[in-house]
Amino acid sequence: DAGVIQSPRHEVTEMGQEVTLRCKPISGHNSLFWYRQTMMRGLELLIYFNNNVPIDDSGMPEDRFSAKMPNASFSTLKIQPSEPRDSAVYFCASSFGPYNEQFFGPGTRLTVL
Amino acid sequence: GIQVEQSPPDLILQEGANSTLRCNFSDSVNNLQWFHQNPWGQLINLFYIPSGTKQNGRLSATTVATERYSLLYISSSQTTDSGVYFCAVVSGANNLFFGTGTRLTVIP
User: Which terminus has fewer CB within 10 Å in chain A: N or C?
Assistant: First the structure.
């Protein structure tokens, strides 16, 4: 298995631009998580899907952030408009069921200038 | 929400030494995982261990759920063990709550 796949691995953009991060979970997993890692706040959950349905989006910072999961093999996290404080590493993780072992992708390092 | 505390925050070891990392959590958990974040930023699964003891090569872990702690043992440390070790738990809600990590540096 290829593991969780994320793209792009690195993204540099200017303030105000739209950013879209992509994730392909491990085949057969039905739970998908988006996390963000910063020096100040560590690793924190942004949103969680189960069977393609958003279950908990309480970690989404504000309306500029949105996430979708149109099918079992693809999810996107969009930031529009982006701001410098959004600079972070964004991880996608998947698991078979919400309480089972989660596997993380390699992350997308986002820099907003 | 649940509190996850890891100790020590930083650890420097000579290659070949052994170490124990600790994770305390404030509530009952459904899931506990240990991760190694390597210098390139990748989060590598070490153990899925909500209770009991597991071993994988030079690494082993023990979780005592009733006393709300978990331990990660690293034996015969190598320079490639350097990085940050995270404990993360699922309690009630479905997402992982991460501790602040232990930064391990193994010097040759």
Answer: N
Cα separation values, A62 from B11, B67, B95, B108, Å? 37, 37, 19, 46
Chain A residues with CB-CB distance to B45 below 8 A: 101, 103-104
Residue of B nearest to A47 (CA): B95
Q: Which of residues 13-72 of A touch B (CB under 8 A)?
A: 31, 33, 35, 42-45, 48, 50, 55-56, 59
Pairing of strands A88-95, A31-38: antiparallel
First CA to last CA distance, chain A? 36
User: How many Å apart are CA B36 and CA B47, to the nearest integer?
Assistant: 10
pLDDT digits (tens, 9 = 90+) for A8-52: 999 999 999 999 999 999 999 999 999 999 999 999 999 999 999
Q: Which tens digit of pLDDT belongs to each residue from B44-96? A: 999 999 999 999 999 999 999 999 999 999 999 999 999 999 999 988 766 78
Nearest to A43 among B31, B42, B98 (CB): B98
> Measured between CB atoms, does B2 come within 8 Å of chain A?
no
What are the φ and ψ backbone dihedral angles of B65, each rounded to 5 degrees? -65, -35
**What are phi and psi for residue B81, nearest 5 degrees?**
-80, -10
Position A108, amino acid:
T
Cβ–Cβ gap A43/B95 under 8 Å? no
